[in-house]
Amino acid sequence: MRRRPLQILPALLACLLLALTGCSAANKHSGTRAGGAHSAAPAASAPGQSHGLPTIAASQLPPEARHTLQLIAAGGPFPYPKDGVVFGKYENVLPRERRGYYHEYTVPTPGARDRGARRIVTGSGHETYYTDDHYRTFKAVTGR
C-alpha cells in the first residue's frame, strides 16, 4: 500500500527538528580556535552559575584582570604563550566538567618576575572565574 505524503510529514518534521537541535548543541561547545583558546567571548557568570562560590563584579576586579577580560573578549592577542590553554582543574574547586571545558588566562601581577598567581578561567558555558592565589580559591565574575 502506498503512503500518502501527509502521513510521513510528522516523521520528517521530527527528523528535521532532531537534526537542528543536535547541530546547535554541537556548535555550542566547539568555540575554540587554534592554540586552544576560545574564540567566543566569555560572558559574565549569571548568579545561578556561581555554583556556591563567592562572586565578584567585573568592575571590582584589579585593572589588570579587567584588561585580561577585554583581551579574552577580543580573542587576543595574549601576552603569555600559555594564555588560552586548557585548565587542568586539578584542585577540584570549580564545578566538574569534561576535560577541555575550562581555559585559563594570565592576569599580570605588578612587580612579579613571572606570570604570578592571578588567573582568569573561562568555561565553555560562558562562565568566568577569577583567582588571585594560584587556583586555591575562585570567585565567579559577574556583571560583564
Describe what this molecule looks like in 3D.
InterPro entries: N1-like, Ribonuclease/ribotoxin. Residues 1-25 form the signal peptide. This is Ribonuclease domain-containing protein. It comes from Streptantibioticus ferralitis. This protein has helices at residues 5-28, 63-74; strands at 55-57, 85-86, 102-106, 119-123, 128-131, 139-142. It is of the alpha+beta class. The termini are far apart.
Shape: globular
Uncertain residue segments: 8-48
Beta-strand portion reads: 15-25%
The helix/strand class is alpha+beta
Question: What is the ordering of alpha helices and beta strands?
Answer: HEHEEEEE
Give the fraction of residues assigned to helices.
Answer: 25-40%
Q: Main sheet: which strands, in order across?
A: 1-6-5-4-3-2
Kindly, what is the distance between the CA atoms of the first and last residues, rounded to a whole number of angstroms? 61 Å
By DSSP (H or I, 4+ residues per run), the number of helices equals 2
What is the radius of gyration? 20 Å
Largest sheet: 6 strands, mixed
Mean pLDDT: 76
Protein name: Ribonuclease domain-containing protein
Organism: Streptantibioticus ferralitis
Keywords: Hydrolase, Nuclease, Signal
InterPro entries: N1-like, Ribonuclease/ribotoxin
